[in-house]
Automatic annotation (TrEMBL):
It comes from Corchorus capsularis (Jute). Residues 24-320 form the Plant heme peroxidase family profile domain. The keyword Cytoplasm does not apply. Its EC number is 1.11.1.7. Its main location: secreted. It comes from the Eukaryota. Keywords: Calcium, Disulfide bond, Glycoprotein, Heme, Hydrogen peroxide, Iron, Metal-binding, Oxidoreductase, Peroxidase, Secreted, Signal. Belongs to the peroxidase family. Classical plant (class III) peroxidase subfamily. Disulfide bonds join C34-C115, C67-C72, C200-C233. Ca(2+) 2 binds at T194, D246, D254. This is Peroxidase. Substrate binds at P163.
């Protein structure tokens, strides 16, 4: 785990931490035990994300993938370090394209220098996800802290729990419901696709192996599909080419992702699926007819909700 294994450091002993002991997250949990913690994270993110803005999407994705497997406990950061943990979440198919682990390690090293053994990796990941989005001009949401780190990381659980790019609406909603999230949360958190990049394997099936003319998914706009086949994913076996999830606006946290959905230009099958349900489609249209601030405030609510999925607090889990 970033923080458990960064720079080979091992922390031993019983940690006496200052903060809440009632097993609940709270704002400014580290106010007494590590008062500069959140500023250290924010300062590092605001300094480095402008040089690599696509990492904002990476951290939102990593946070999402972490929370959907055993809760927001940083188990996605665990490495395979023993026979009892031979196949961690990092090895799961949805996680093989995650990036930014070294960034998290660097933030963790700064926090360890300031207050050793205090700030959990789960809180670090959650804060970085929020702060990186804010740094590129996206919405702010509250991040109560006090999460403890998980000790179990299983690739099979990640493969079963994380929605894939080919999921239909029924599957998406079921996986969200499993985490205590609803259709509204599904639509709003999917709005994070307004930033970032994808790889051809996530869309090639829609371009070459579907039921439409030329193998193209009939739910995908034909002009958009032709452009992707001509200029991006030129063969069905292209595993390396990157493409924008929100063409022309991938570093701007805006509503253009939802506009593309209504034009049948959502990149993933799971994006297109959001328009196949009347309740979901109604929310998309509401977002598009409302000020950007409405999307920001609603997105914030869903992110705050997601960030508290099955969190470990108090004496649960591990601390660093």
């Amino acid at each position: 785990m970033a923080g458990k294994h960064f720079l080979g450091l091992i922390f031993v002993g019983i940690l006496a931490f200052i903060g809440t002991t009632n097993g609940q997250l709270q704002m400014n949990f580290y106010a007494k035990s590590c008062p500069k913690a959140e500023k250290i994270v924010q300062d590092y993110v605001s300094k480095h994300i402008p040089n690599a803005p696509s990492l904002a999407a990476s951290f939102i994705r990593m946070h999402f993938h972490d929370c959907f497997v055993r809760g927001c406990d940083a188990s996605v950061l665990l490495n395979s370090t023993s026979s009892s943990n031979p196949n961690p979440e990092k090895n799961a198919v949805p996680n093989q394209t995650l990036r930014g682990f070294d960034f998290i390690d660097r933030v963790k090293s700064l926090l360890e220098a300031e207050c050793p053994g205090i700030v959990s990796c789960a809180d670090i990941l959650t804060l970085i996800a929020r702060d990186s989005v804010v740094t590129i001009g996206g919405p702010f949401w509250k991040v109560p802290t006090g999460r403890r780190d998980g000790l179990i990381s299983n690739a099979a659980e990640a493969n079963a729990s994380i929605p894939g790019p080919f999921s239909n609406f029924t599957t998406l909603l079921r996986l969200f419901n499993n985490q205590g999230l609803d259709a509204r949360d599904l639509v709003l958190t999917s709005g994070a696709h307004t930033i970032g990049l994808a790889h051809c394997p996530a869309v090639s099936r829609r371009l070459y192996n579907s039921s439409g003319p030329g193998g193209v998914d009939p739910t995908l706009d034909s002009e958009y599909a032709a452009n992707l086949k001509a200029n991006k994913c030129r063969t069905p076996n292209d595993n390396t080419t990157k493409l924008e999830m929100d063409p022309g606006s991938r570093n701007t946290f805006d509503l253009s992702y939802y506009t593309l959905l209504t034009k049948r230009r959502g990149l993933f099958q799971s994006d297109a699926a959001l328009t196949t349900d009347q309740t979901s489609l109604a929310l998309i249209n509401q977002l598009l007819s409302s000020p950007l601030s409405f999307f920001y405030s609603e997105f914030a609510k869903s992110m705050e909700k997601m960030g508290q999925i099955n969190v470990k607090t108090g004496t649960q889990g591990d601390w660093v």
